[in-house]
Each structure stands twice: as structure tokens, then as C-alpha cells.
Design a protein that fits this description.
alpha+beta, elongated, four-stranded antiparallel β-sheet, 3 helices
């Protein structure tokens, strides 16, 4: 089995929303781990420059699960157009990648 680990970035409007999304992704084995951090975003929305406090989710997953993960985030998210972008992990420690696979129920006996 080829495993294509990656990090998915999502921003959320509040800590509560971010935690809700993170817990759902981990419970549904769509993510092994989700790290949450408060951030400040400056962006253009509907022709206006906005500056908002948000929460950044850094989601560690197998990118084969990306479509299901994206669907779950969209289901739980308050934004009309949430950030959901994937970045491949091109290298990592064997121990961490093995844990990642175990957490996602992709590998057994590790």
C-alpha cells in the first residue's frame, strides 16, 4: 500500500469551531493529529481587504483521505469558502510516519 502523507491547512473563525473540526477529523480517522494556533489573517473578500483573528488548523493525514476530509470540513465549517489546502510531506522521521499510519488505521503491527 502506498501512503501519501500530507498536511492540510484550514482556518476557522473561532477556537470552538477549530476544536470541533479537529475532534471530528481525528474521531473519524481522517486525521492522525490536528494542531491549533491563533493567527491573524489579512485577505481580500468580495472586493474588500479584511483583517481578522482566526484559528489555524494544521492537519496531519494520508492525502488519499483528502476528499473525505474536505467534505467533513465543509460540513462543519461556518465560512462560505473555507481554506482547505494540502501540502505533501516529502520526508519525515520513520517513527513519526509509522505513528501517523497507525493512527489513521493504514498500517498494522507497527
Amino acid at each position: 500500500m502506498t501512503i501519501n502523507f500530507g498536511v492540510v491547512l484550514v482556518t476557522a473563525a473561532s477556537e470552538v469551531e477549530a476544536e470541533n473540526i479537529a475532534k471530528s477529523l481525528v474521531e473519524n480517522k481522517l486525521a492522525a493529529c490536528v494542531s491549533l494556533s491563533p493567527i491573524r489573517s489579512i485577505y481580500t473578500w468580495q472586493g474588500e481587504i479584511k483583517a481578522e483573528s482566526e484559528w489555524q488548523l494544521v492537519i496531519k493525514t494520508d492525502l488519499a483521505k483528502f476528499e473525505a476530509l474536505k467534505t467533513k470540513v465543509q460540513e462543519l465549517h461556518s465560512y462560505e469558502v473555507p481554506e482547505i489546502i494540502a501540502i505533501p510531506i516529502i520526508a519525515g522521521s520513520d517513527a513519526y510516519l509509522n505513528w501517523l499510519g497507525q493512527s489513521l488505521s493504514l498500517q498494522s503491527g507497527l
